[in-house]
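Task: sequence design from structure.
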């Protein structure tokens, strides 16, 4: 290996009396070296991404929350009658959006507190499938329960709470799903496998959005749409979609064995064990520690791209609701294809190279959308699709990187920390978005806040060493 500038995870070469480092832990993927993974197991694992994507795309982002729960359907009738031009009407909508934000914040706090400990306990007991099944079924039940969220202000809290709870359960399930990637990948294929999962997820989102778009164009085939019936049917459809596809990971993907030597402790004692494990990462797996920090920052920026992208299209470039959905379909298509293809580059050049390249392109494309906005909607289409083509690969490569540096037997715990660190910084892009818009009075400038977070994460990631390749035996 060639010499490189000292990074945060490198030992202090100036010390002459440092104690000898403990043996490097065995990475979970190392145990898969040379193992032949049946294709059915890989497909079954990736179908969980496909099956659960409608919750993220349809419920959280483009349809149920944006086009139903935060609309005048949930305003007091007297306020709704005032119309969009009245300040009281606008304040009412702002209260709805902030209410959804509050429940999402509470969900984030629960994930922050629960994800790493539940992951640790799943590792100790070897029951990752049980936690995956419980989280997935719970999320399905939340989507089914959205059927009862009628178009009336009295049901707003129920809708927001169900979506928040669904987010918690989705994240807990995702921790164990990500951990199980080690069961279906080898050091030589982990990039392609991770990219396949993300890519199928995007394709699933495309089909779900296409169905909604076709249903709107067909006026719901004559179905009554009063009392929010169309959106409630959509929620039930998303639940059935998840049930139809997500179960295969439970049936065909082998369970990882419990961690050897890991004593079973009570729930609250798990936090003591967690603190010691984080200390252990700092001492023995410094690369993993620093990656968790860097990825927490740039993943928040990536989330901001999708969270606020639709708002930029609608407010700054004048896109209608149908145009936003069409763009969402195109964005998911581009993201899905690029994520699957870049998975091969991940295995060839390493996930760090993929992450650095895609984050750099995102920064340039984001700046172009802001400073070339006077050229009209074509800027949003081109810049937005370039951003979409890079977000998926960066997310998939991030998951691939972590799988490569996770010690054997600690997969769920480390991916729990991955979820937690992401939540710990989830305020950054939202805060900078808000501050920038408040300071300038224009939504388009909020893009710079998101770009700043991505750029910060890019700088941090530059100082994180590459994950080991199949032939790289260099310890952390």
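Answer:
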């Amino acid at each position: 290996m060639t010499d490189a500038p000292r990074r945060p995870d490198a030992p202090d070469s100036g010390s002459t009396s440092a104690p000898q480092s403990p043996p490097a832990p065995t990475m979970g993927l190392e145990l898969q070296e040379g193992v032949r993974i049946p294709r059915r197991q890989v497909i079954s694992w990736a179908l969980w991404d496909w099956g659960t994507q409608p919750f993220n795309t349809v419920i959280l982002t483009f349809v149920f929350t944006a086009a139903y729960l935060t609309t005048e359907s949930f305003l007091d009738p007297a306020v709704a009658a005032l119309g969009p031009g009245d300040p009281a009407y606008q304040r009412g909508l702002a209260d709805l959006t902030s209410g959804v934000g509050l429940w999402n914040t509470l969900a984030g706090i629960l994930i922050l507190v629960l994800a790493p400990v539940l992951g640790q306990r799943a590792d100790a007991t070897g029951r990752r499938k049980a936690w995956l099944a419980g989280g997935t079924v719970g999320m399905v039940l939340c989507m089914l329960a959205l059927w009862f969220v009628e178009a009336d202000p009295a049901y707003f809290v129920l809708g927001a709470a169900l979506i928040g709870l669904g987010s918690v359960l989705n994240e807990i399930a995702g921790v164990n799903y990500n951990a199980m990637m080690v069961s279906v990948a080898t050091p030589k294929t982990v990039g392609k496998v991770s990219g396949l999962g993300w890519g199928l997820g995007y394709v699933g989102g495309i089909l779900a959005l296409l169905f909604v778009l076709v249903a709107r164009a067909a006026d719901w085939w004559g179905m009554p749409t009063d009392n929010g019936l169309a959106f409630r049917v959509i929620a039930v459809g998303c639940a059935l979609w998840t049930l139809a596809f997500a179960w295969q990971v439970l049936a065909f993907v082998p369970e990882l064995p419990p961690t050897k030597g890991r004593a079973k402790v009570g729930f609250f004692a798990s936090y003591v064990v967690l603190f010691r494990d984080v200390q252990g990462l700092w001492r023995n797996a410094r690369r993993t520690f620093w990656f968790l920090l860097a990825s927490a920052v740039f993943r928040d920026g990536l989330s901001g791209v999708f969270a606020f992208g639709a708002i930029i299209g609608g407010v700054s470039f004048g896109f209608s609701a149908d145009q936003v959905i069409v763009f969402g379909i195109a964005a998911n298509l581009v993201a899905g294809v690029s994520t699957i293809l870049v998975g091969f580059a991940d295995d060839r050049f390493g996930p760090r190279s993929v992450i650095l390249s895609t984050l750099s392109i995102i920064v340039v494309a984001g700046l172009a959308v802001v400073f070339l906005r006077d050229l009209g909607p074509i800027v949003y289409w081109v810049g937005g699709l370039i951003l979409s083509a890079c977000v998926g690969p960066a997310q998939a490569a991030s998951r691939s990187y972590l799988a490569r540096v996770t010690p054997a037997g600690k997969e769920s715990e480390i991916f729990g920390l991955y979820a937690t660190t992401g939540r710990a910084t989830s305020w950054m892009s939202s805060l900078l978005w808000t501050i920038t818009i408040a300071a300038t009075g224009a939504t388009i400038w909020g893009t710079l806040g998101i770009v700043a977070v991505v750029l910060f994460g890019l700088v941090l990631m530059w100082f994180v060493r590459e994950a080991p390749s199949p032939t790289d035996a260099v310890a952390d």
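Residues 57 and 205 are 6 Å apart (CA to CA).
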